[in-house]
Design a protein that fits this description.
alpha/beta, Rossmann fold, five-stranded parallel beta sheet, 16 helices, 11 strands
Length: 424
């Protein structure tokens, strides 16, 4: 059996990487002879991380290769020609649109040929049905494109524990609705995603399962977990909320306000005798916020060595971030998979939420009182919540461990039903 795995991954989001780690492990455990291939935004990254051949889900793919002199000359000639054509709009605009259309048709044909070689296409990962990050409808269009091509190639199509966002644009709604309707199997990671699809007209066959990352194997990391002796370590996971450089909603005043709150909370932790470690589950997106937070803390802490200890090099792999987080006693995160990683490692966590998926993840654990809106929380609330987190530490760990065990068992049953071969 040959199985394709599609996700909007490739830029270093460790939640996406962990999702594929789980799905790949689940398939290989049940179908050891299955051949796996990937479909992603950055195929080279996916191949390196997961050890499978990979193909692009869009016709433009970032190239890490540096250009030589001859390439520079060709690029310069191309730029001059493009600049000249732009000076003649009545020629440039229709020519550009026609060329883009032909390139997209060619990409459809190449993708169709690849899909004809597989037996099953699995679309998994969190926000596959969303229109927040890639413009008004591009992400939903990509999912629809591959869903339609898979069915035209007469292949099975699964949506596995995906998340659905607001889908404000009519095109996003259309593409998401029909992509899901084409599927032979579909499941969602929370009831909110399920309900969003119901409002679009998909009424049946949409079970809810936990996020696939709750089935992540973490036994080796639990062995090196924080001992609870000495000075407790707090893991702080900032993000570029409303940062005009990277965030869809660009509001520098909100971003600076968020950074100031993080800085004040970090200095309070030092005053209380805690150790602090800044970490990231998405280095490509978080790096600006981490750098800005480091600049602010450097101006308020007297020891450069202390600042260096707080800001370790960002983790580039799932294994690295789990190893790092295993040493924490408590976590404060602004990222969805910062919550999930904390849960699977049984780390008491506070969520500063920018999305309903984070609210649902915390509420499902009975920890909604440790969740607050990222744009409106106050430092006093965060300090009070952290004190409660410390007081309730034992019970939180116990509840999280039991819930994750239940989640993992449910996911295992789901994977059995999907991937165990039929027995005669």
């Amino acid at each position: 059996m040959k199985i394709g795995l599609l996700d909007h991954m490739g830029y270093g989001n460790l939640g996406d990487a962990a999702t594929q780690d789980v799905v790949i492990a689940a398939i290989r455990q049940r179908l050891p002879k299955a051949e796996l291939i990937g479909f992603s935004l950055v195929p080279d990254d996916t191949t390196k991380r997961h050890g499978i051949p990979c193909f692009p889900i869009r016709r433009w793919v970032p190239s890490p290769q540096k250009k030589g002199n001859s390439s520079d000359e060709r690029a310069s000639l191309k730029s001059r020609l493009k600049l000249f054509l732009k000076s003649v709009p009545f020629v440039y605009v229709p020519a550009k649109n026609s060329l883009e259309f032909l390139r997209e048709i060619a990409f459809w044909m190449r993708s169709y040929r690849i899909l004809r070689s597989i037996d099953l296409l699995i679309i998994s990962g969190g926000g596959q049905l969303d229109d927040v990050w890639d413009g008004p409808w591009l992400q939903a269009y990509t999912v629809f494109k591959f869903s339609l091509l898979a069915k035209l190639a007469r292949k099975e199509l699964y949506f596995l524990n995906v998340g659905a966002g607001k889908l404000k644009h009519p095109f996003s709604q259309f593409f998401a609705k029909w992509a899901v309707r084409l599927a032979d199997y579909r499941s969602f990671r929370d009831q909110d995603s399920q309900e969003r699809m119901r409002t679009l007209g998909v009424k049946t066959g949409m079970p809810v399962y936990p996020d696939s990352v709750y089935a992540l194997e973490v036994a080796d990391y639990l062995k090196g977990a924080a001992s609870g002796t000495g000075m407790p370590i707090v893991g702080l996971n900032p993000m570029g909320f409303c940062d005009p450089r990277i965030w869809p909603r660009k509001d520098n005043s909100l971003y600076q306000d968020y950074l100031e709150k993080m800085t004040r909370f970090a200095t309070w932790l030092f005053d209380q005798g805690y150790k602090l470690r800044v970490f990231s589950t998405d280095p490509a997106v978080d790096r600006y916020a981490i750098d800005d937070l480091q600049t602010r803390l450097s101006s308020r802490l007297s020891s450069p060595e202390l600042v260096r200890q707080v800001f370790e090099p960002a983790s580039e792999s799932v294994e690295s971030v789990l190893r790092q987080m295993s040493e924490f006693d408590f976590v404060v995160t602004s990222k969805y998979h910062g919550i999930v990683f904390s849960h699977v490692l049984a780390k008491p966590v506070i969520s500063l939420s920018y999305h309903r998926k984070m609210d649902f993840a915390m509420q499902a654990m009975g920890q909604g009182h440790f969740n607050a809106d990222i744009g409106s929380f106050e430092v006093d609330w965060l300090i009070k919540a952290f004190r409660s987190l410390v007081d309730e530490c034992r019970s939180i760990k116990s509840v999280s461990a039991a819930a994750v065990e239940t989640y993992a068992a449910k996911l295992s049953q789901q994977f059995d039903s999907l991937f165990l071969p039929d027995k005669p």
